[in-house]
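Support request from a user on the community tier.

User writes: "When I paste my structure tokens into the form, the page sometimes reloads and wipes my input. The last time it worked, I copied everything first. Here is what I submitted, just in case something in the input itself triggers the reload:"
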């Protein structure tokens, strides 16, 4: 079974020694790495003012193997979809939070609005204007990936899928190399904090020309 998710780092063992949470906010230059939308560094974190349609931030954060991500965000405008892309080898798994109708879901191979194949559907996931804390685990074994999530200290659920079957949303970018990225649909937010815990793998900043 999937190991327990914790809001704070517990005793973990990674290759080369104990795993530790690493704050990676300072690795992100929103002015340099924005792809659409107005992303700026503010006192509260990295703020997005949406420009209509999709908004993207392509960070230089790469992580391999098994890892946890702790993402603190605050919805600020329109409250539709909030997306984090997480790398799995050369592919992505995508997590979508939404305050539009209080829903939360993840995506494997399906559109976020495909009601026929939702992964999870939980009312009241986000509150506009209130900070949320999402802790996401990514685990890989025998060509499969397992994703689990807690939101504000409450376990939401998880799924397991073949790595060959996962792909990003058809409207989202496939960045290369695979990095941690963010996006929204006509929605503003503040990324208040981002921490990564490499359980069995390597965390580093991608070099870009």
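"...and here is what came back when it finally went through:"
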């Amino acid at each position: 079974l999937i190991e327990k998710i914790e809001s704070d780092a517990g005793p973990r063992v990674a290759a080369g020694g104990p795993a530790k949470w690493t704050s990676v906010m300072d690795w992100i230059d929103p002015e340099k790495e924005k792809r659409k939308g107005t992303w700026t560094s503010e006192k509260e974190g990295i703020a997005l003012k949406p420009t209509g349609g999709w908004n993207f931030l392509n960070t230089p954060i790469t992580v391999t193997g098994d890892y946890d991500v702790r993402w603190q965000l605050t919805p600020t405008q329109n409250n539709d979809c909030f997306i984090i892309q997480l790398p799995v080898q050369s592919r992505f798994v995508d997590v979508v939070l939404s305050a539009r109708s209080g829903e939360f879901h993840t995506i494997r191979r399906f559109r976020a609005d495909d009601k026929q194949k939702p992964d999870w559907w939980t009312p009241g996931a986000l509150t506009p204007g209130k900070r949320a804390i999402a802790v996401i685990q990514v685990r890989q074994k025998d060509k499969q990936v397992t994703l689990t999530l807690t939101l504000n200290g409450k376990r939401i659920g998880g799924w397991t899928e073949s790595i060959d079957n996962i792909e990003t949303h058809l409207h989202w970018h496939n960045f290369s190399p695979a990095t941690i990225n963010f996006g929204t649909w006509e929605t503003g937010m503040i990324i208040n904090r981002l921490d990564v815990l490499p359980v069995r793998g390597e965390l580093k900043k991608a070099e870009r020309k």
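Agent notes: The reload is a front-end session timeout and is unrelated to the input. Residues 30-33 form the longest helix (4 residues). Helices lie at 30-33. Escalated to web team.
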